[in-house]
Design brief:
With 151 residues, the chain is mainly α. The protein contains six helices and no strands. Helix 3 packs antiparallel against helix 4 and helix 4 packs across helix 5. The longest helix has 29 residues. It starts with 20 loop residues before the first helix and ends in an 11-residue tail after the last helix.
Amino acid sequence: MNTGSDRGGGRDAGADRPEADGAASGGRVPGSRAPAFVRERRALHVSWQAAVFLVGLAVVAAGVLMLALPGPGWVVIFGGMAIWGTEFAWAQLVLRWTKSKVTEAAQRALDPRVRRRNIVLTVIGTVVAAALISVYLGKFGFRAPWSAGGP
């Protein structure tokens, strides 16, 4: 699998052209961010990539566990992707795509019509929840469900 990180200096072949992908994204070209002495030695660079991959994998796995367990799962997953992004071009591209989608979603959320709609939906949901709670309390009273069948 060629990640583009084994090219000289971690630069893309077309990075000197203004229309290259790196120039359009603020000058960052996908590829390795390993120190120069690591990139110069093939065995050391492969070892470096393996270590970065394993650390990123551990962080992403911890994030996936946090989706079901308490913790900031998505933040940790994106942290693991950022670790991978220091070495692998595919991770940098995924992070760039994700950042653009999050920015678009934030802009849509700031739209006054969307905010009004969200407020209306929240009020409707609150009224429905209050009605359901009222029906429950009217039928069963205010006692804990686990003590309903006890003496």
